[in-house]
From TrEMBL:
Gene3D superfamilies: 3.40.50.2300, lambda repressor-like DNA-binding domains. PROSITE patterns: HTH_LACI_2. It comes from Victivallis vadensis. It comes from the Bacteria. This is LacI family transcriptional regulator. Pfam families: LacI, Peripla_BP_3. GO terms for molecular function: DNA-binding transcription factor activity; transcription cis-regulatory region binding. Keywords: DNA-binding, Transcription, Transcription regulation. The lineage of its organism: Bacteria, Pseudomonadati, Lentisphaerota, Lentisphaeria, Victivallales.
Amino acid sequence: MAITLNELAKQLGLSNATVSMALRNSPRIAADTRERVRKLAGELNYVPNNFGRGLQSRRSRLLGYMLGTVTRSFLNELLETVGFASMYDGYGLLTGWVPDTPEAFRSQLQLMLEKNVDALIFTLTGELVYPHIPLLRAHRKPFIFCSCYCPPEYDSVVGDHYLGGRMALEHLAEAGHRAVLVSECRSLEERLRGYSDAAREREVTLHCYRSSGEIPAMLDAMPEMTAIAAFSDAEALEIRHLLQDSGRSVPGDVSLIGYDGAWFTQEREFSLTTVAQPVQEIGRSTYRRLTEILAGDSDPRQILLAPSLRPGASVAPPKTGK
């Protein structure tokens, strides 16, 4: 039979309030008392019942995180960082997987509201979220966008894709490339603007591709293109395979730069040059900002975090004559 707080307090000879605060590591309780309480609680396998506490405070100590995928290692690491930050602060994290449809979003959001999460994190396109903001406000559920651009009236934490686009293009230009293929990345207009501004300043010609599968044919039609800036590191690997299948080498025939800073880019067999997003900083800043909102700071803030260039072996000067 599970031991209760009352029984635990009785065995310790302490009040219920003292035991409860000690279990929450409150500095108002002496360190030796906290240690004694935690030791006995562990020995007796005591599990706090947060239901009653939630009824009193109207807080569930649960956060909801809604996102579309974690197959990209960048998002996987982002989810992990937010999860650890929540856990260490005594929150549980509920994750909702949302295919890119309004119906799926509504279904997952309804479940989050039924679970009475204290707040929500969205790594989703705004078009899915915006129609439901009146519902979130009606339920008094704070929210924040993580790694997604949004209008200034909402809170967000995002990597600086404009700067990242500039970094990628400038690195290729410095290597001598004067004609570059870049991802159209309509969901990241700021990155495309960074590419364009840097290309104009460096007198580099840009062409956009919509999908990686069309790149070999584009290179056949435009042999002056000597470098590619991929949408992500995962896409860069796919492009590399497509180039190899079409008889081209990286960086011998075509230079290639990724985006995100995924772990595999530093492996010897890949050694991919990439623009690395500050993933852990994005995750921690998202959680930190959300706790500020829950504490009453309601003035929206948009936090922009700078990426960094991580050189690899996939960028080299173009072949002579190109």
